[in-house]
Design brief:
- The chain has a domain of 56 residues.
- It has four helices and no strands.
- It is mostly helical.
- The radius of gyration is 12 Å and the shape is globular.
- Helix content is 59%, strand content 0%.
- The protein starts with 8 loop residues before the first helix and ends in a 6-residue tail after the last helix.
- The longest helix is centred in the N-terminal third of the chain and has 12 residues.
Length: 81
């Protein structure tokens, strides 16, 4: 079943700024790329990226930016998984 959730404008703006930032971590950039790839399509998050996002959300040391991006990625996951 496809997920009809799409990234909102605030989240896509955050994702774009994150990708452009030289101080963003690799995890943040991966999450940001996933958010942007799903911004205007019906694509869903892949299983591997779901794992990355889930780990980021469970990590109490994740920054607010990481958590926001991870939350968006998880919300666009396949409803079957």
């Amino acid at each position: 079943m496809a997920n009809s959730n799409r990234s909102g404008s605030k989240t896509t703006s955050l994702a774009a700024r994150t990708l452009a930032s030289s101080s963003a971590s690799g995890v943040q950039k991966s999450l940001a790329a996933s958010v942007l790839s799903q911004a205007s399509t019906n694509r869903v998050t892949g299983k591997a990226m779901e794992g990355v996002a889930s780990s980021a959300l469970r990590n109490p040391n994740s920054s607010p930016v990481t958590q926001k991006l991870a939350g968006s990625v998880v919300s666009q996951s396949s409803k079957k998984r």
